[in-house]
Amino acid sequence: MNIIAETKPGKPAAIAGRVERRDVVDLLLKYNFIIIFFTICLIATLLSDNFLTFRNVSNLFQQAAVVGIVALGETFVILTGGIDLSVGSMTAFGGVLVSLLMAAGVDPLLAIAITLIVCMLAGAFMGSISAYAQVPSFVVTLAGLVTIRGLTYLMSDGVPIGNLPTAFGEFGSAMVPLFPGSDLVFPILGLIFVGFSIVGMLLLRFTVFGEHIYATGGNSEAARLSGVPTRRIVTAAFAISGLMCAIAGILLTARLRIGQPTAAQGLELDAMAGVVLGGTSLAGGRGGVIGTVFAVMLLQVVRNIFNLLGLGSFYQMTITGIIIIAAILLNRAIDQRSGQ
């Protein structure tokens, strides 16, 4: 009797142990990008004494700001199951447009507002074509990539736009104290990136709009039948992407102090790499801003390591490509595990 009494309780305990281990594994897989990020940071710290200095960390955020802000907008689009290939051209367009307006004597704040509205409407236009005309977003935004870049060259005659207000240029390289009276200063571009990241996370996780984004990407037809305005959600996601590109273009122009029509070439690849590396599924419906932020910072850390070690850009490109491939394979394995 004692043997039976001791054996029966043992089964639930064993099952509970297996379930608990599985939960731990699932948790590690879900947040793999955070684990990878801190692992790479640890390696970087061992390789270079300069990595963990406050100055180097603040530079990482400044360098990641433009790509990171664009990647935030790309995250919204990919979560709906779409893709935006025009973000690099849109960023350059925003930078040139705000430069032309200010060079023509328009008040800087008004020039910025006009640029934000124009880019947001351009993004919404591409999104509406994809959503209402049922044209794949890949095709629509590929056309947008070429068209918007061509328009940027036409507007600027292919030459940089200078004569920008001094205050605007100073804003791009401005540093602000971490807190009043502190000797530690942080780049304002990095703070803007952090601020938009927090807003994006809150928008996706704690609003009805965010729920609709995930529902649209998870199963568009089921979401539509459930009353989700999927077409408007897709259009809104592209509008957000256009808005983020405008902000990135304005910040890049402020940092360079000129409107450069050739700027942001290849930015769409960096942005999509950050989104995919951060765990957002290209099929839509899974992922989020937190993963994108960590992934963008991870790519910057990798490049920073090579710069600190004095290695060339060819190594950076190769290692970055390997990391992206590994991330895609890992995310696919996670998808298959979740489907079991």
Automatic annotation (TrEMBL):
Main localization (coarse): membrane
Topological relation to the membrane, as annotated: Multi-pass membrane protein
Q: Where are the transmembrane segments?
A: 28-48, 60-79, 86-104, 110-131, 138-156, 184-204, 233-252, 272-299, 306-330
**Which UniProt keywords are listed?**
Cell membrane, Membrane, Transmembrane, Transmembrane helix
Top-rank taxon: Bacteria
Presence of keyword Calcium: no
Pfam families recorded for this chain?
Answer: BPD_transp_2 (PF02653)
Q: Where in the cell is it found?
A: Cell membrane
Give the CC-aspect GO terms.
plasma membrane
InterPro entries recorded: ABC_transp_permease
GO molecular function annotations of the record: transmembrane transporter activity
- UniProt xrefs under PANTHER family: ABC TRANSPORTER PERMEASE PROTEIN YPHD-RELATED-RELATED, RIBOSE IMPORT PERMEASE PROTEIN RBSC
Q: This protein is called what?
A: Ribose transport system permease protein RbsC
Identify the coding gene: rbsC
